[in-house]
Amino acid sequence: MGSPARELPIRLVDGPVKHDHADHAFESGGRTAVPPPPKARVFVEGQPISEQAIGQEMQHHPAIRPEESWRAAAEALVVQRLLQLETARLSIDGTRHAEPGESAEEAATRVLLEPVFDLVRPATSEACQHYFEQNREHFRAPDRVQLRHILYPAAPDDIEARLASRDRAEHDLAELKAHPERFAEYAMRFSACPSKEQGGELGWIERGQTTPEFERQVFRLKPGLAGLPVESRFGHHIVEVLALEKGALLDLDQVQSDIALRLDLAQRHSAMKQYVESLMARYSVEGLDAAL
């Protein structure tokens, strides 16, 4: 038997759609015309960057708030336009400089920016040591957690299955709180994870070894049986933390190459920022404030 029809979180309209007063501005002779595209809000040297282009670029700048994504996308396209104007002013022939697999525009931009990045000097050992000492607590081995779990499976897009998974996990969790010694038994009987053969034990887990949403929750737990089921893309889990281990502090020689790379990237970012500011002084930019 098929599953019963689900109520969709949208309203379907069977009859004719009522338009408000503004909609009639696009109606003519009983036919509805396509409304004009939104007006551009960003201009470089008087030339618009379309809202459509910004919308397409937004997929490369995810953010919690849409306006933050829009802002980042608009800034990226402004910088791209500024670089195009400058390569044209300097008559840089990207076709002549292109390397295999590189477009003419990419080659022109690379040639344009080479003098900018040539000013960046590799981080010294003294700079690395200073950064290490100022951020000592940040340089640790990964934290670890030892745990066991019981997985009640449900597909991410199956709402009914996920509700049933949660209810079953909550029911069994209540029983295990009264009889914690039966955890391995429950895991072998009910868990959909291969770890059920080991009584649900997953051993030691470091960040990055499982799914992010699962780790975000289990690394916040205290030793013992979690008070609520843990939800992940696979379903709901009853989790028991057996042990926690904070990562040991690392020595400078273990992280110096990473620090050097971080400092080099920071210098490149600063050099690029200053260069873009110089281009904004040469070319007009409207619609964004001066701080890119």
From TrEMBL:
InterPro entries: PPIase_dom_sf (IPR046357), PPIase_PpiC (IPR000297), PrsA_foldase (IPR050245), Trigger_fact/SurA_dom_sf (IPR027304). Keywords: Isomerase, Rotamase. GO terms for molecular function: peptidyl-prolyl cis-trans isomerase activity. It catalyses: [protein]-peptidylproline (omega=180) = [protein]-peptidylproline (omega=0). It holds the Pfam family Rotamase. The keyword Lipid metabolism does not apply. It comes from the Bacteria. Its EC number is 5.2.1.8. Residues 142-243 form the PpiC domain. Belongs to the PpiC/parvulin rotamase family. This is peptidylprolyl isomerase. It comes from Pseudomarimonas arenosa.
